Amino acid sequence: MRLLPRSPRSASGTIALLAAGALLLTACSGATVKPGPPASADGTGFATTALTPPGKGAVASFTWSLYAEPQSLDYALAYDYPPNTVLANVCEQLLRVTPDMKIEPGLATGFTNPDPRTWVYTLREGVKFHDGSTMTADDVVASLTRHLLPATGSAWGTAFKNVVAVSKTGPMQVTITLSKPDALLNELLAASPGTVESAAYLEKAGKDYGSPSGGVDCTGPYAIDRWTQGDSITLRKNPDYWDTALTPKADKVKFVFIGDSAARANGWLSGAVDGGYMVPSASLAQLGGTDKGKVYFGPNTAAADLAVLDLQGTLRDLKVRQALSLAIDRPGLIKSAAGGVGVPAKAPAARDAWGLAPERTAGYFSQLPDPVQDVAKAKQLIAEAGAGGKHLVMATSSLAPEISVVGNAVQAAGREIGLDVELRPVAPDAYTALFTDPGARAGIDLVVTNGYDNTPDPLEFYQSLRTGDFANYAGWSDPEYDSLFDQAVGTTDPAARADLTARLQQIAVRELPSIPLYEAPFSVFLGSRITGAPAGIAQLYYPWAATIGAAR
After folding, report:
1. d(Cα 481, Cα 520) in Å, to the nearest integer?
2. Which of 87, 109, 232, 512 is deepest in the core (most CB within 10 A)?
3. In the chain, where the domains are located
4. Does domain 46-88+220-299+522-550 fall into CATH 3.40.50.2000?
5. pTM
6. CA-CA distance, 1 to 12, in Å (whole number)?
7. Is 13's pLDDT higher than 70?
């Protein structure tokens, strides 16, 4: 994964994201080899693709690596790469995120928005769960309502914060009634919040639902065949899958748990493992030069940022935040933390997060200042703020190597402009607490964060900077920003919502409650035996394993 959380919906979601943080942007020696597609024409040195070359035929099975064993396969708790990478092929949502970051019909054939506070979904006929029973509106109501129940402990509970009721309004129709307009909820029904499970199975499994013993019973192209704790999860092909365009090419998929990044790379190189997402940057040079397979880069909705945790101390003055941003050597940071594969971030949310309006993205970002290093200007701002010699504390941790890499870069930048940046090491558990426990943030000014949008709508990220939002760690507040957000979340027209979100982005860049660092693409390694996987972050919800087939 990338580093740490973006805009968590709940405390449990934050922890899950943090647990994933150690493995995509692993620190390395500055290698700049860019495997995968040819260098792009925009000067970044790498290109992205939504899809890898299509599979040419069936394969009996393939093996896929996960950097950790899922704690649960309960969709309500799926807020991390390992469970979502598995569940994307087992369970499905009312809507679907496509590899090119669009939203299309899924288990719902369509929806209407008859008034700003009502969403009506028409369900797909004839869809069967893995046990052979047929999906109905009752299943959808039971599945979505679980997020509202405190006993569920859903990581997605606050996505339903404006929901008054989820109701069956026809045999194959479900209506969601809201207390206020909320276009984001509709889009999030293409992610875990929109997952549909058998109501009967939920009742039968009870508290064991999603565990190795309780399992799940969904509608996807694969069903769980076996979960061997501490070792692997095996899926079997669903012969009755409704979407014939995604009929699986492999009869079985085996997920193996390999926590060590070097061991994962060795598994790919030896052929013991056929593929995996989130290629460690320390292995890019090695994997780029092998004939055992290929690395592909895909769309990613994430950017690495410095989250400000305290706006009452040294960083209270905007000039200090601006100076620190100007002092950071982003190209150097990309080399040391991302293996040279990335671009400086102009905004807290990545360019690929703008799938909502891709034709407008270039225009929105052209209005933002370039994130250039200007030490002289930074020193001037520090002098104007009277901040010379002032103290800052940045948390670091062994949780992920890139945390220390970014910390060292920030400390060096601060030293060059006259700020005293103290790096305070904290244990991994304590580091995760920074994002869930306000008390744990006491005495700490900065922390490196990185996460992703689940949908192609950047408003999902920018909601985290609203006054009072759970992920607004420093309590930043801007009345203009809050007013614009309320307008945006109540706007159903994608272009109009994107325009409003672009204004939110401009305020965030101007005020710097979060300091953008860099963007890196998503990545996947495919061994020479297979091909066909989506290359981007849409793999979290798109049934990617169904598209993998023989390379020859």
Report:
1. 27
2. 87
3. 11-17+301-519, 46-88+220-299+522-550, 95-203
4. no
5. 0.87
6. 17
7. no
